[in-house]
């Protein structure tokens, strides 16, 4: 008989008609074994106010999260949580969860061990087959792959624009250097692309990221809203990409300047930029934080 490596009470955040609420559940973590895969099992509970060991539990349909599908786990510090708890997120290839627990760090540590230990052991086994490097090296605990930094699992929140484009369910939203791209979560094929100059506005609120697309976008104009525990990180990535694109746009082209002429220098004249409006270079307009050029 399988025994859970961790057993306790969790609160799972639900969103219905735009209103967030917390559902109390009992959760159990199981390690991979001949009897089953590494997973989290959740059950609805009814608490009569007694201690955890004597809590009155009413088991409903068992909900299972396969930890092999886990993409990321981490603290979610901006959430308003039930008393004496702290929030964390659990993102899989199928869905993003926001949960809260009294021992949040213990849950995060145990989830990471069960979800990612197999991949780590495989990497270590592969490393043992390679010749040892001449220089001692240490693992970088801050390492993140390029996809970790640019791809965000999201859940579509229904809007008129999303319904018009037939969007529903889970996707990957990728912050590329030139555009914001929506991808299929399995094949990672691009489905919709919004060049940054075609975004009128964008912003986030807790676990919600939203932007307004201009009429020149492939999707047409309208507001698109996504739920993700990494909403703040996603919003910052978009702002950074727009700022970089704006800086590249404002950088002077060296071809617009004349080559120095010794005769002009001898007369005290300096080479001048040529081109329309070059006499008095105008300062570039401020980015405005979350309002790229409207199209």
UniProtKB/TrEMBL annotation:
InterPro entries recorded: Docking_Protein_DOK, Dok1/2/3_PTB, IRS_PTB, PH-like_dom_sf, PH_domain
Amino-acid biosynthesis among keywords: no
Chain residue ranges for the region called Disordered: 251-295
This protein's UniProt keywords: Phosphoprotein
GO biological process terms on file: cell surface receptor protein tyrosine kinase signaling pathway; positive regulation of MAPK cascade; Ras protein signal transduction
Domain IRS-type PTB stretches: 148-252
Origin: domain of life: Eukaryota
SUPFAM superfamilies per UniProt: PH domain-like
A Pfam family recorded for this sequence: IRS
GO CC entries: cytoplasm
Keyword Phosphoprotein: yes
Protein family: Belongs to the DOK family. Type A subfamily.
Protein name (Swiss-Prot/TrEMBL): DOK3 protein
Encoding gene (name): Dok3
């Amino acid at each position: 008989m399988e025994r859970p490596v961790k057993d306790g009470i969790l609160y799972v955040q639900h969103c219905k008609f735009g209103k967030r609420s917390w559902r109390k559940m009992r959760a159990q973590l199981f390690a991979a074994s001949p009897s089953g895969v590494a997973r989290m099992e959740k059950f609805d509970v009814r608490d009569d106010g007694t201690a955890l060991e004597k809590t009155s539990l009413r088991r409903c349909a068992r909900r299972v999260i396969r930890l092999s599908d886990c993409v990321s786990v981490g603290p979610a510090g901006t959430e308003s949580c039930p008393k004496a708890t702290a929030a964390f997120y659990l993102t899989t290839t199928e869905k993003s969860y926001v949960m809260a627990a009294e021992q949040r760090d213990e849950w995060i540590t145990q989830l990471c061990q069960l979800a990612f230990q197999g991949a780590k052991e495989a990497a270590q086994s592969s490393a043992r087959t390679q010749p040892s490097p001449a220089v001692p090296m240490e693992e970088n605990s801050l390492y993140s792959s390029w996809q970790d930094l640019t791809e965000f699992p999201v859940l579509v929140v229904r809007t008129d624009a999303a319904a018009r484009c037939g969007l529903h369910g889970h996707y990957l939203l990728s912050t590329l250097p030139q555009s914001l791209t929506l991808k299929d979560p399995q094949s990672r094929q691009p489905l919709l692309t919004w060049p940054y100059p075609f975004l009128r506005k964008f912003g986030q609120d807790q676990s919600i990221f939203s932007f307004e697309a201009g009429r020149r976008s492939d999707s047409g104009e309208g507001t698109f809203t996504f739920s993700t525990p990494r909403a703040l990180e996603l919003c910052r990535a978009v702002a950074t990409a727009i700022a970089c694109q704006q800086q590249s746009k404002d950088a002077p082209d060296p071809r617009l300047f004349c080559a120095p002429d010794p005769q002009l220098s001898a007369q005290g004249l300096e080479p001048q930029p040529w081109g329309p409006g070059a006499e008095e270079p105008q300062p570039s307009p401020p980015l405005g934080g979350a309002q790229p050029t409207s199209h």
